[in-house]
Design goal:
454 residues, Rossmann fold, 21 helices
């Protein structure tokens, strides 16, 4: 009886830990989730969902080997589990093993052929050809009346990618537009509110503010911020830098956004109330968080694109940090956003009017940062990197005070996790097929072009 009570108590304890860990995972508290999953799985190692979620959390902090071990434990318990197989596919994709990733997606589809998200994720890592039987399968799935709007959205994005691969551009755009309309219905994005935020950032972070507090922050020289619009080449630039022997690539790190939210209430207005000593404290907090992932690396990249909103904060909390602004043709940038489904964020990208309006506000803010902090930000154009990779790589390394490293030119061979939509592209040598991509859809994109260039 006592043994039975003890077992019940342990099961309940594990269940509570799993519940807290799941909440931490949902709120992106990766370290908290990892700690709780470890404790819970030590008590109840037969929980397949726990192992799968544990693996997902480990993947978020770059612990690939441990993540794979956890996910394989989950697969042993639940060999057909969608989350288990999906997380294993994601792991392989981030490691650059697209062949293995595709095999896991096909395992899902073998057991659950109507899981449109698996089709969508697989479409992003494979090249389609005319007559590809996968296109027929996708069209059949998309036409089913039994699937919901979310599934139809995933199928439409997948078909857009597939038909663009096969150069059937008119049909590709029809599916891309449908997918965006379906996604936009689920979101709440207010361009007017974003415009007010940008205007307020410009008002608060003027030249006098930047100059007044620029000597107050933490003087750590390690952070390198790689930022700009999504799909502007940030992943490529980080991959080049992270191939250097002295650089650790931290990916899309949430540190700045988290610290601003916690330390500067009512941002951006609240920044006007900060005392000089606050800047060093905030900068040190960021560096401490970064060090948890990067260890003792001499330089660490943070390639969260939307950090362009916080350049005024970065300049003062980390005055020795390098800031690299990635640029790309406005039309290629915007169409690349429009043609892609983002798992989270980027709510502005699913409507062409909102996308164009957002791009103009982003450009306005970047022009402001250059005015108030001349010489502090390096602009690097995606097209220039494609055209003359070595020259632009040397410029990047000089800006970051790094010696030349030949490995930076062989970035596609660098073994590291890449968790963005460009994970597959940075595993290839430099190519130019994405330059002027938008011109295949020039007629359909005329409203966007008119807005951006008006």
């Amino acid at each position: 009886m006592k043994k039975q009570l003890l077992n019940t108590k342990k099961i309940n304890q594990a269940a509570g830990l799993f519940q807290v860990a799941d909440a931490d995972l949902f709120s992106k508290n990766w370290e908290g989730a990892i700690q709780k999953y470890r404790q819970a799985l030590n008590i109840n190692p037969s929980n397949s969902a726990g192992w799968a979620n544990f693996g997902a959390a480990l993947l978020e902090v770059g612990k690939a080997e441990e993540a794979e071990s956890a996910l394989e434990s989950a697969r042993t318990l639940d060999p057909k589990g969608i989350n288990v197989l999906g997380n294993l596919a994601n792991l392989k994709k981030q490691l650059g093993d697209n062949e293995a990733a595709e095999k896991f997606y096909r395992k899902i589809l073998k057991h659950y052929p109507n899981v449109a998200r698996a089709w969508h994720e697989m479409a992003r890592i494979k090249r389609f050809h005319p007559g590809d039987p996968d296109i027929l399968e996708l069209e059949s799935l998309h036409a089913k009346s039994s699937i919901n709007d979310e599934a139809r959205m995933h199928a439409a994005f997948a078909l857009g990618k597939a038909l663009e691969d096969t150069r059937d551009y008119d049909r590709a755009f029809q599916y891309i537009k449908e997918a965006n309309c379906l996604k936009r219905r689920t979101l709440n994005f207010d361009l007017k509110a974003f415009r007010i935020t940008v205007d307020e950032i410009i008002r608060v972070f003027d030249a006098s503010y930047i100059n007044r507090f620029q000597s107050c922050g933490d003087n750590d020289e390690r952070p390198i911020f790689v930022l700009g619009m999504p799909r502007s080449g940030t992943t490529l630039i980080e991959q080049i830098l992270a191939s250097h022997s002295s650089v650790f690539g931290c990916g899309e790190f949430e540190g700045i956004n988290t610290i601003v939210r916690e330390s500067i209430p009512k941002f951006p207005k609240g920044a006007a109330l900060l005392a000089p000593e606050n800047f060093k404290h905030i900068g040190t907090r960021y560096v401490e968080q970064l060090t948890k992932y990067a260890g003792a690396a001499n330089r660490v990249t943070d390639k969260m694109p939307r950090n362009y909103l916080f350049i005024g904060v970065i300049l003062n909390i980390l005055p020795q940090a390098r800031i690299i602004h990635c640029q790309r043709s406005p039309m290629d940038t915007c169409f690349s956003c429009y043609a892609l489904h983002f798992p989270r964020g980027q709510e502005f990208s699913y409507n062409m009017d909102e996308l164009g309006g957002y791009f103009l506000l982003y450009r306005q803010l970047m022009e402001h940062w250059h005015r108030v902090a001349p010489g502090r930000i390096l602009d690097i154009a995606y097209e220039d990197v494609i055209r003359d990779t070595e020259v632009k790589t040397r410029e990047l390394l000089d800006f970051c005070d790094l010696d030349w490293d030949e490995a930076c030119l062989k970035f596609h061979k660098t073994k590291r996790l890449v968790g963005t939509a460009s994970a597959a592209q940075v595993r290839e040598p430099i190519y130019s097929r994405s330059v002027e991509r938008w011109r295949h859809f020039e007629e359909q994109l005329k409203p966007l072009k008119d807005l951006i260039y008006s």
